[in-house]
Specification:
Largest sheet: 5 strands, antiparallel
Mean pLDDT: 83
Helix content: 55-70%
Structural class: alpha+beta
Low-confidence stretches: 538-548, 787-791, 808-825
Oligomer: single chain
Distance between the termini: 30 Å
C-alpha cells in the first residue's frame, strides 16, 4: 500500500480509527494505573553472574547484609546522666518501631560474666534498662558503668570513636519490608525519632546505611519524575503555542504525547516490570520525543495547505511526504533505545524494550490521530501559518545558507577544530562510579555518609568468606590466628573498619574469662583453650535458648562450622579503587591462607554494586555500537548509497565526540547515567539527518537535479522544523538538569548540548558535504540509483483516492506563504 493510499484509508476510516484508539487508550490507562515502583536494590547484574551467585549463596547462609541503618551523634556529653537517660529512651522507642528486629547501641551493649558453676559465659547488660521514664542512673553509677564499657575493646570503633566523641547506633530492619513500599514508613519513623532526639539536645543527627540510602533516593526520584513529567508537558505546550500560535496544534500534540505516556506506563505493567530509575525516565522521554513527530506533521500540513488551500489534499501530502520519514526516524530512535534489550543487565533490558516499543507506538499514534483529527477541524487560518515566514527564523536560515555556500572552508576548519578539541578531551575521560555518585555533596545523604567515613571508616558492607573445606574447620586455633592477623591488617587500612568475625567474639570471651582485663582481649593460646573449652560450647544455630552473644557468634560461622565470615564496613571508594583495594587484600590473604587449605570469597553489597556498574557501562557501550550498526543498515536501506550514509554519519558523530570531549575537559566521568547520553542522543539526532536528506531528495526532483538549488530549498524548508524541534528537545531535556541528582543533571545537560550541536551540524556540515559531493550525487540521482527506497510515488488526485466527499474546505484569502509559493512556481 502506498502512503497516499494509506492516507486515504486513514481519512475514510477516521471515526473508526479514533474510536479504536480511544478504547485501547482507556484499556491502557487501566493497566497504567497499576504501575508500581521497584524497590529491588540489585537488578543491574545478570542473574547467572558468578559474583551474583556468590552473593545469593552468602545471603542464604548468613542472611541479608544490606538491612542495617546507622544513626550517629557527636557530643562530649554522652555519659551525662540526663543525656544518657534520653538516649536509652530513644533506643527503646526505635526498638518498638514495626519491622525493627534489633538495635545495637551502647545502652544495649552486653558484657560477659563467667559462671564457674555452669561453665558458661553469661551475657549481661552493662547498663540497666529503665522500666519507666523516671528511672535515672546516678552520675556516679553511670561513671562506674562507663568505665566497664570503655574497658571492652570489642566495642571500640564499632559503637564509638573515643578520639572524636562520636557514637553510633545500628538498627537492623526486617529484610522483607525493605523490598516493599512499607519501608518508607519504617525509615521515616526512625528518622523522626532520631532527629527529635537531636533537636532536644541541640546536636546534629547523622543517618546512613543501605536501607536509608535506598529509601531516600527512591522517594526523591519518584517525586522528581512526576515533576519532570508535568514540567515537560507544560514547557513543550508553551513552546508549541509560541511557534504555531494555535491552540488546536497544542492540544493535539499534547494529546499524542499523553496517549504515549499512558501506553508507556501500561507497557511496563503488561511486561511484568516495575518503575526503576531508568524506566521512570521513559514518560518524560516520550513527551520530548513525541513532540517532534507532531511538529513535522503539522509543519508539512501547514506548508502544503498554504500552497493550494485544499485541506484534504494537504492531509494526504502530509502523510505521503512525512510518513516514511517519520517511520524511519522513529525506527532509528527506537533502535537507539531498544538495543539495551540485548545487554545482560536486567535494568537495561527493561528500559530498552519498553522505550523501543513505545517510540514505535508514538509513530502509529501520531499517524492515526493527527490526520484524523485535523480532518474534523477547520482549515488553518492565516495567522496559524505565518510562522512559516518568521523574519527572525528566515534570517537565521539565510545566514546558514551564506555560511554553507560562501564560507565552506570555514565550516570544514571549524569542524576540524571541534574534532581536535573533542579528541583531546576524550583522552582525559575516566570511568568511575560511587554508591552515592549522583547525590549532591551538600545533600544530607552525602554529608552524613562522610561523617561515618571520618569517624567509623564507612558503612558500606563488604563480606569475606573463608572456606576451610571441612566441617568444624573454623575451630582451629591456627585459623583463628590467621584470621586475627588478617583482621588487624585490614583495620590498619584507611578505607576499612575493623572486621567483625567469630574471632573477635572468642577474644571477648577470653577477656571475660580472665576477669575483664582489657589486656586479655586476644586470641587464646593452647594453654587458654584447655580452660576456655567448656565455656565455648554454643547451642545449635537458631536454638531458642541461645543467648544474644551466642547468636552474635553464630552470625559469623555457618551451621557446619566450615565457613567463617569477616564482615567489614568500608568507605564508598568507587568502582575504580575498589578492585585495587580487593587485590591488595587478596595479596595479603594469599600469604596467610594457603590455597591448598582455604578459599576466600569477596562478596556483599559493595562488590555486587561494583559488578553491576561495570555491567551497565559495558552494556551501554556495546549497545551504542550495536545501535550504530543497525542505524547504518536502516540508512543504507533508505538511501542505497554508502556515500550518503557516510555524509549522514559525520554531522552526528561530531556532536557525540564533542560532548565526550566536554566531559573529559570538565571532569565528568563515564558512569551509567552519562554513558546513556550517547545512546539517547544518537537515536534522536539521526532523525534530523534523515529528515534533511529525504527532503533534499524530494527537492532534487522538483528542481531537476540542480544540487545548489535543492540544498538552498532544503535549508529553508526543513530548517524551520529542525530548528523548532531542536529547541523543543533542548528545553525538554534541560528540565532534567534541575534534578537533585548529578546523573540526571548530566543526562539533561549533556543530551541538550549534543542535540543542539546536532541541529547546527545538520544545517551546516551536512549541506556542505552534499555540495562537496555534488557531481557524484547528481550523476547517481539521474540514473535513479539514489534513494530508491523513498522515490516519489505518482501524485494521485482526490478523485482517484476517493476523498472528494471530504473536501469541503472553502478557499480563504491567500496568505503571504501562498503568495510566495505562487511566485516560486
Amino acid at each position: 500500500m502506498s502512503w497516499q493510499r494509506l492516507a486515504s484509508w486513514i481519512l475514510k476510516k477516521r471515526f473508526l480509527l479514533l474510536s479504536l484508539l480511544g478504547i485501547l487508550t482507556c484499556i491502557m490507562a487501566y493497566f497504567a494505573a497499576h504501575v508500581q515502583l521497584s524497590y529491588d536494590f540489585i537488578k543491574s547484574i545478570p542473574l547467572n553472574n558468578p559474583k551474583y551467585k556468590q552473593y545469593l549463596a552468602f545471603k542464604k547462609t548468613f542472611g541479608e547484609d544490606g538491612n542495617l541503618m546507622v544513626i550517629g551523634y557527636q557530643t562530649d556529653r554522652f555519659f551525662d546522666a540526663s543525656f544518657f537517660r534520653d538516649y536509652q529512651q530513644l533506643v527503646q522507642h526505635i526498638q518498638q518501631v514495626p519491622y525493627v528486629e534489633d538495635v545495637l547501641s551502647i545502652p544495649t551493649a552486653l558484657n560477659l560474666k563467667k559462671i564457674d558453676s555452669l561453665h558458661r559465659l553469661q551475657p549481661v547488660p552493662i547498663f540497666p534498662t529503665p522500666t519507666n521514664p523516671s528511672d535515672t542512673l546516678s552520675q556516679s553509677r553511670l561513671d562506674s558503668l562507663k568505665h566497664i564499657f570503655l574497658s571492652l575493646p570489642f566495642y571500640r570503633g564499632l559503637l564509638y570513636n573515643p578520639d572524636t566523641h562520636s557514637y553510633l547506633m545500628a538498627v537492623h530492619i526486617n529484610k522483607d519490608i525493605l523490598n516493599t513500599s512499607g519501608r518508607t514508613h519504617v525509615i521515616q519513623a526512625i528518622e523522626q525519632l532520631a532527629d527529635g532526639f537531636a533537636q532536644q539536645h541541640h546536636i546534629t543527627c547523622y543517618l546512613s546505611g543501605i536501607p536509608y540510602i535506598r529509601t531516600v533516593i527512591t522517594n526523591k526520584l519518584s517525586r522528581e519524575l512526576r515533576i519532570f513529567l508535568i514540567s515537560s508537558v507544560v514547557l513543550t505546550a508553551l513552546i508549541l503555542l509560541l511557534f504555531f500560535r494555535s491552540l488546536s496544534a497544542v492540544w493535539m500534540s499534547m494529546a499524542v504525547v499523553l496517549i504515549g505516556v499512558i501506553w508507556s506506563l501500561a507497557t511496563i505493567v503488561l511486561l511484568g516490570y516495575k518503575l526503576t530509575i531508568l524506566t521512570g525516565l521513559i514518560p518524560p522521554l516520550v513527551v520530548v520525543i513525541g513532540i517532534p513527530n507532531c511538529v513535522y506533521f503539522l509543519n508539512k500540513y501547514h506548508s502544503e495547505y498554504a500552497r493550494h488551500q485544499n485541506k484534504v489534499k494537504a492531509l494526504v501530502r502530509m502523510v505521503q511526504r512525512m510518513g516514511i520519514v517519520t517511520l524511519f526516524t522513529n525506527l532509528t530512535a527506537a533502535i537507539g533505545f531498544g538495543v539495551f534489550f540485548f545487554t545482560r543487565s536486567a535494568v537495561l533490558r527493561e528500559f530498552g524494550i519498553v522505550a523501543g516499543l513505545n517510540i514505535l507506538w508514538l509513530f502509529v499514534i501520531s499517524l492515526i490521530f493527527l490526520p484524523a483529527m485535523l480532518s474534523y477541524l477547520p482549515a488553518p487560518r492565516e495567522r496559524q501559518v505565518n510562522y512559516l515566514e518568521s523574519p527572525l527564523l528566515n534570517w537565521m536560515l539565510k545566514q546558514l545558507e551564506i555560511l554553507v555556500f560562501q564560507y565552506r572552508p570555514v565550516v570544514y576548519a571549524g569542524t576540524i577544530v571541534v574534532l581536535v578539541f573533542a579528541i583531546m578531551g576524550i583522552s582525559r575521560l575516566n570511568s568511575v562510579g560511587y554508591i552515592l555518585d549522583d547525590v549532591p555533596h551538600r545533600d544530607r545523604l552525602y554529608t552524613d555518609l562522610k561523617f561515618f567515613e571520618r569517624n567509623f571508616k564507612g558503612v558500606m558492607p563488604l563480606e569475606i568468606l573463608i572456606n576451610t573445606h571441612h566441617p568444624n574447620g573454623v575451630v582451629s586455633l591456627d585459623l583463628m590466628n590467621r584470621i586475627d592477623a588478617f583482621s588487624r591488617y585490614i583495620a590498619r587500612q584507611p578505607d576499612f573498619a575493623r572486621p567483625m568475625s567469630y574471632v573477635e567474639g572468642i577474644k571477648f570471651a577470653r577477656q571475660a574469662y580472665y576477669g575483664g582485663d582489657s589486656l586479655s582481649y586476644a586470641v587464646p593460646n593452647q594453654f587458654d583453650l584447655v580452660f576456655l573449652a567448656p565455656y565455648l560450647q554454643f547451642k545449635p544455630v537458631g536454638s531458642a535458648s541461645g543467648n544474644g552473644f551466642e547468636r552474635l557468634l553464630h552470625a559469623f560461622v555457618d551451621s557446619s562450622k566450615q565457613i567463617a565470615r569477616l564482615s567489614i564496613d568500608m568507605k564508598d571508594v568507587g568502582t575504580s579503587r575498589l578492585p585495587l583495594l580487593l587485590h591488595q587484600l587478596q595479596r595479603k590473604a594469599d600469604s596467610l591462607f594457603p590455597a591448598s587449605r582455604y578459599s576466600l570469597t569477596y562478596t556483599g553489597t559493595s562488590v555486587v554494586f561494583l559488578e553491576g556498574s561495570r555491567y551497565i557501562i559495558n552494556g551501554l557501550a556495546d549497545s551504542i555500537l550495536l545501535a550504530f550498526l543497525l542505524i547504518l543498515g536502516c540508512m543504507f536501506y533508505l538511501f542505497r548509497s554508502w556515500k550518503v550514509v557516510g555524509i549522514a554519519l559525520i554531522p552526528n558523530m561530531i556532536p557525540l565526540a564533542f560532548t565526550a570531549g566536554v566531559m573529559g575537559w570538565v571532569g565528568v566521568p563515564l558512569k551509567p547515567s552519562t554513558v546513556l547520553v550517547f545512546s539517547v542522543a544518537l537515536g534522536i539526532a539521526i532523525d534530523v539527518t534523515i529528515r534533511f536528506l529525504v527532503n533534499f531528495k524530494q527537492e532534487m526532483q522538483l528542481v531537476r537535479f540542480q544540487m545548489s538549488e535543492a540544498v538552498k530549498r532544503t535549508i529553508h524548508d526543513t530548517g524551520i522544523s529542525i530548528v523548532y524541534t531542536g529547541l523543543i528537545l533542548f528545553a525538554g531535556f534541560m528540565i532534567f538538569s534541575f534534578s537533585a541528582f548529578g546523573g540526571t543533571q548530566a543526562l539533561g545537560l549533556l543530551t541538550s548540548l549534543t542535540l543542539i550541536l546536532a541541529m547546527i551540524s545538520n544545517l551546516t556540515i551536512l549541506p556542505a558535504m552534499l555540495l562537496w559531493l555534488e557531481k557524484s550525487l547528481k550523476r547517481k540521482a539521474r540514473r535513479h540509483q539514489l534513494w530508491p527506497a523513498v522515490d516519489e510515488e505518482k501524485d494521485l488526485s482526490l478523485e482517484e483516492l476517493g476523498l472528494t466527499g471530504l473536501n469541503h474546505t472553502h478557499a480563504q484569502k491567500p496568505s503571504a506563504v501562498e503568495k510566495n509559493s505562487h511566485r516560486e512556481k
